[in-house]
Each structure stands twice: as structure tokens, then as C-alpha cells.
Specification:
single chain, mainly alpha, flat, 2 domains, two-stranded parallel sheet, Helicase, Ruva Protein, domain 3
Amino acid sequence: MYDARLAKTLPPSARVGFTVMDAWLAYAPVKDNPEDAAKLSKCFCGVQGKPSSAPPVVLGQVLLGTHMNCPYGILVDLLDRLIIIRTQTYDVADMIKILALRANVEDLVIDDESLAYLGDMGLQASLRHAVQLLSPSSIMAKMNGRDNICKADIEEVKALYMDAKSSARLLQAQQEKYIS
């Protein structure tokens, strides 16, 4: 198990394998053995973008030759500095809220029935596909002489634009018609 009392910062000579950006430095434990410092030169991590007030995004970590059991396979001193965000899938109510916010941002007028239809479509296909149908549906409504989006506009636009999952199923079913 990892012992924080034995942890030390890396000497500058052992930082050759690190990506260091300005003031942000990567730390890893080093025992009192110089061979361990040489093993840590195989360690790599990176920071997304330039240094800012946001926490860095660690891409990966490898410590060759060490046998420590750590949660998530990440050293405890590094894990203490991370932000862990739990993610979960959206339900229909969440999708409807997101779609209503997006319609509000784009200054679109849409009724509750259409929002519910788009929410169901977001569950079946993806939220991205449902959001991307808002703008063409607005154009379709204006072509039909209305300011508000109704379910018929969304259905008409849905027939024109296929979501990624349906497209993949169609290509898989008709693969003999394409050059591979």
C-alpha cells in the first residue's frame, strides 16, 4: 500500500518524462532509492490547454516497477488533487429542460407537445440530435407561415436528417451496396 510519509518530490533530473507547463509541476513519490527515480522517468502526464484557474486534466500515469494498490489505479497524493465528477444519463424531464433552455437561447417559440416529442427523440437517438433539430424546425415553421414550432415541423425535419445511430444501422443493413 502507498505510504504518504515515504513520498518525496521528484528531483529535476527525474522530470524528463513529464510535461510541465509554467508553474504546474507533476509530483510522484520517490523512495530513497536512486533506481526508483530512474523508473519514474517512464511516467507521463499532460495538461490540457494552457495553465489557468481550472484544474489540470491528467491524461495518464505509469509507474513501472512499483507495486502499490491505489484506488482507481491513481496515486493517493494525485487523487487528492483531482476533481471526480459523477455522470449519469439524462431522463426525459432533464432533456426537456435542456431543450427548452436551448430554444430560449435561440429565441425560438416551441410548444410543450413539441418539447416532449423532442425529449423522446433525445432518448431514442441522442440529445445532440434533438438539439440540432431545433434550428431547422424553426426554419420549417417560418416557411409554413408560423412563428412557433409545432410537432409537424419537427417530424418533417426529422425525415430530412438522420441521427448517427440510425445511419449506422442503415449502413450495416445495406453494406453489400457499398465498396469496402
